[in-house]
């Protein structure tokens, strides 16, 4: 396996873990129940709602970081040769 | 009159912008638009397909009744996008190299199994039927409500069917995506604007609406909501089930094969969460804010239509078009995927001699037959459709180990995929129908047990058998494409 391939796999693994960690914080019952409260409120919104919206926005930032890293690493410029159908 | 005119204008616009897309001549072009769709089409294609019209009636009714729990869609959307990002590269590379058109064809190639291709093609079609019926029903309901009963639900459905069949059957994926761009832009711009307007004009703004909810029904601001006693595991289960199943729908997955590059797909993952979070959060906040209002509590599924009609004829007209846009986006994607599956994954596999021209004809006639058949939706109660549609998620999640392990694990094999898929479906639907006590007390939905069954069978089968010969070549294709 080439160094480029190993680097690409490591990069993907890091971002998958980061994004899954936001999902974990949204769904794992002990953490989710800890955040499942009304106070403190912001703009009238309950904390539970702010918690989930914030985690989704953090996940969106991780997606953007992943895309930029893939783009700089050349992982998005892939050339595929079409194989004629038999 | 104004809502009816706006609905008519919107449908006319959809046909007009598709006037140059109506002459596809091969099944490949019909199914994938010859891999030519750019980032705008893929982003809005995913959003318009994913946002169902029933989201503004049935699913928003869930938030009206129980408040906070309706928010599960946002974390589930993140899982779905992660799955999309993960499957994009390999699906695109094999899709382009072997000119694949559908998810089932991809699975048939990966596992070298025509049986699995037909099986998953059939499952995709069968599991999509309740969604198709529910969306037709929603289209009929929109016409009926927006015209104050002038157009009956059945006539509304017939008008919707005529428009969609016209552009899907003649234009295929190219027309579907072109319409999706218009539908998606409308949903994001005009749709969001009307939701904000109603939030301020009828409820006094976000803070006032939330303060009212806080003072009258604070339980609606947290899980599980007023009058509902359910385990916290239920929250986890619905997010994981919907998140993993959300990208497995053929009508969503197949759009990967229409993209012109991997960059396009991954860029759309970049835009989709921000647009999705913003627009869904708005819809959800408005629905949740309606909880204290007596009419909304008694009629949760009509609540959004009702509050828009209270705001005036123009807000109602804009909202009716918003729901119509969401419904048409989903229906067109489903019809395109189902007709391609019937023609390419079932007919062409059962009879290899079917030509591309004949396959295209079969796909087109499938659209017509399915749409006319869907009129039975008018005679099925909406509650039954919702139950069936939610049940299909318990089947869709079972497909996710077959797809994900197939793409990333060389040891995944045909035996494990076929047996695992069938056993997972049996467990998932068996538990859904029998509903043993532990399903409610523990909180995990039946799909989670089905998913774990499929995963276990595939892992065991993968370690019991050697890696299949053809897999090395497929992995080599990936390495060559990446330039490693």
Describe the structure.
The complex is a heterodimer of chains A (86) and B (484). Chain A is mainly α and 86 residues long. Chain A has three helices and no strands. In chain A, helix 1 packs antiparallel against helix 3 (47-72). The longest helix of chain A is centred in the C-terminal third of the chain and has 26 residues, at 47-72. The two termini of chain A are 31 Å apart. With 484 residues, chain B is an all-alpha fold. In chain B, helix 3 packs across helix 15. Chain B is globular and about 65 Å long. Chain B starts with a helix and ends with a helix. The model of chain B has no long low-confidence stretch (mean pLDDT 90).
Kindly list the characteristics that best describe this protein:
heterodimer; A: 86 residues; mainly alpha; 3 helices; elongated; B: 484 residues; 78% helix
Give the SSE map.
The complex is a heterodimer of chains A (86) and B (484).
Chain A: H1 3-27, H2 29-35, H3 47-72
Chain B: H1 2-17, H2 27-32, H3 39-50, H4 58-66, H5 73-97, H6 103-111, H7 114-146, H8 153-203, H9 206-216, H10 232-246, H11 250-253, H12 262-289, H13 294-298, H14 303-311, H15 313-350, H16 356-373, H17 382-408, H18 414-434, H19 437-442, H20 446-464, H21 469-482
Helix pairs in contact in B: 1-8, 1-15, 3-8, 3-12, 3-15, 4-12, 5-10, 5-12, 6-7, 7-8, 7-15, 7-17, 8-12, 8-15, 8-16, 9-12, 10-17, 14-15, 15-16, 17-18, 17-20, 18-20
Residue runs with pLDDT of under 50 for 5 or more positions of chain B: none
Q: Say what oligomer this is.
A: heterodimer
Question: The biggest beta sheet of chain B, please?
Answer: none
Can you summarize the main beta sheet of chain A?
A: none
The gross shape of chain B turns out to be globular
Instruction: Calculate the mean pLDDT score of chain A and round it.
Output: 89
């Amino acid at each position: 396996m080439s160094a480029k391939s190993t680097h690409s796999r490591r990069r993907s693994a890091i971002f998958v873990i980061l994004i899954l960690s936001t999902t974990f914080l949204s769904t794992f019952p002990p953490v989710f129940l800890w955040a499942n409260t009304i106070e403190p409120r912001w703009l009238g919104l309950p904390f539970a709602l702010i918690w989930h919206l914030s985690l989704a926005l953090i996940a969106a930032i991780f997606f953007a970081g992943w895309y930029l890293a893939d783009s700089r690493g050349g992982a998005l410029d892939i050339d595929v040769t079409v194989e004629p159908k038999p | 009159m104004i809502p009816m005119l706006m609905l008519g204008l919107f449908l006319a616009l959809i046909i007009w912008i598709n006037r140059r897309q109506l002459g596809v001549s091969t099944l490949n072009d019909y199914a994938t638009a010859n891999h030519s769709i750019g980032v705008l089409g893929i982003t809005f294609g995913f959003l318009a397909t994913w946002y169902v019209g029933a989201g503004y009636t049935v699913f928003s009714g869930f938030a009206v009744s129980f408040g906070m729990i309706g928010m599960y869609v946002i974390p589930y959307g993140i899982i779905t996008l992660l799955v999309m990002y993960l499957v994009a590269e390999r699906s695109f590379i094999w899709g382009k190299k072997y000119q694949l058109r559908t998810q089932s064809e991809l699975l048939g190639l990966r596992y070298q199994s025509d049986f699995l291709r037909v099986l998953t093609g059939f499952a995709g079609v069968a599991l999509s039927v309740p969604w198709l019926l529910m969306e037709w029903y929603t289209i009929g309901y929109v016409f009926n409500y927006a015209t104050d009963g002038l157009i009956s639900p059945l006539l509304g459905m017939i008008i919707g069917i005529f428009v969609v069949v016209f552009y899907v059957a003649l234009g295929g994926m190219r027309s579907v995506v072109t319409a999706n761009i218009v539908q998606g832009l409308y949903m994001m711009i005009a749709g969001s604007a009307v939701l904000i307007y109603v939030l301020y004009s009828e409820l006094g703004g976000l803070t006032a609406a939330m303060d009212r909810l806080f003072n009258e029904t604070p339980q609606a601001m947290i899980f599980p909501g007023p009058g509902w006693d359910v385990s916290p595991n239920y929250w986890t289960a619905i997010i994981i089930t919907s998140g993993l199943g959300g990208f497995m729908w053929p009508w969503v997955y197949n759009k990967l094969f229409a993209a012109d590059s991997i960059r396009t797909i991954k860029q759309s993952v970049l835009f989709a969460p921000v647009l999705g979070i913003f627009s869904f959060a708005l819809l959800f906040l408005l629905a949740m804010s309606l909880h204290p209002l007596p009419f909304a509590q008694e009629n949760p599924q009509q609540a959004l239509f009702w509050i828009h009609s209270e705001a005036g004829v123009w807000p109602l007209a804009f909202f009716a078009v918003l729901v119509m846009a969401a419904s048409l986006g989903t229906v067109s994607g489903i019809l395109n995927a189902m007709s391609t599956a019937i023609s390419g994954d079932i007919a062409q596999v059962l009879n290899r001699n079917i030509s591309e021209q004949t396959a295209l004809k079969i796909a087109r006639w499938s659209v017509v037959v399915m749409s006319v058949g869907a009129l039975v939706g008018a005679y099925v109660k909406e509650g039954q459709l919702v139950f069936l549609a939610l049940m299909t998620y318990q089947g869709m999640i079972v497909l996710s180990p077959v797809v994900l392990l197939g793409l990333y694990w060389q040891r995944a094999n045909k035996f494990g995929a076929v047996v695992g898929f069938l056993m997972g479906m049996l467990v998932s639907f068996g538990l859904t129908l029998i509903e043993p006590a532990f399903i409610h007390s523990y909180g995990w939905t039946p799909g989670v047990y089905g998913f774990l069954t499929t995963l276990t069978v595939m892992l065991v089968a993968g370690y019991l058998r050697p890696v299949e010969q053809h897999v090395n070549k497929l992995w080599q294709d990936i390495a060559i494409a990446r330039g490693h």
